Amino acid sequence: xxxxxxxxxxxxxxxxxxxxxxxxxxxxxxxxxxxxxxxxxxxxxxxxxxxxxxxxxxxxxxxxxxxxxxxxxxxxxxxxxxxxxxxxxxxxxxxxxxxxxxxxxxxxxxxxxxxxxxxxxxxxxxxxxxxxxxxxxxxxxxxxxxxxxxxxxxxxxxxxxxxxxxxxxxxxxxxxxxxxxxxxxxxxxxxxxxxxxxxxxxxxxxxxxxxxxxxxxxxxxxx
Length: 223
Prior knowledge:
This protein is an alpha+beta fold. The protein contains seven helices and twelve strands.
């Protein structure tokens, strides 16, 4: 991990939901400087980790939740995350942005990006708390609409400050314009909810205590 790199942790978390396994992968400072922001880094990871011919709803397809270098700062409107995948609607690279506390909690897991790949054989929740990853059964929440599922999952989590991104019945049934919901907001373009549903992932839950630094924090706060 490259702690001297301001705004970033210098690594991403790659999770295979089919194998219930995960690994931390380093991201070089040159890569982070070349591919700026959540969309830039997400596009880099998509091109690096999957072939362009992959079906977006196949186990080989990846779904990336990506956090920019300003997430967690005091800069207004910076609490956004990008979701990047191949779109089941267009069969092209697709990104969506969403604002919420999920962005801050996701980055505080210590990851600049969380990448989901594979396909679970049953509905699951992927829960990340700092550097630990759990794969929890989600059958009890399957079929719930987004708002109810998010509320129930958050209530059932041990930590009250856990943040949740969920899909509803549209994502579960692979509707190609389904969204991913968090705090009543949506990563809404191009069918990311269907990609998440194809992996049998009902929700991604994030929580963490890891913070990044900024090169000029006083000036950033003044700005």
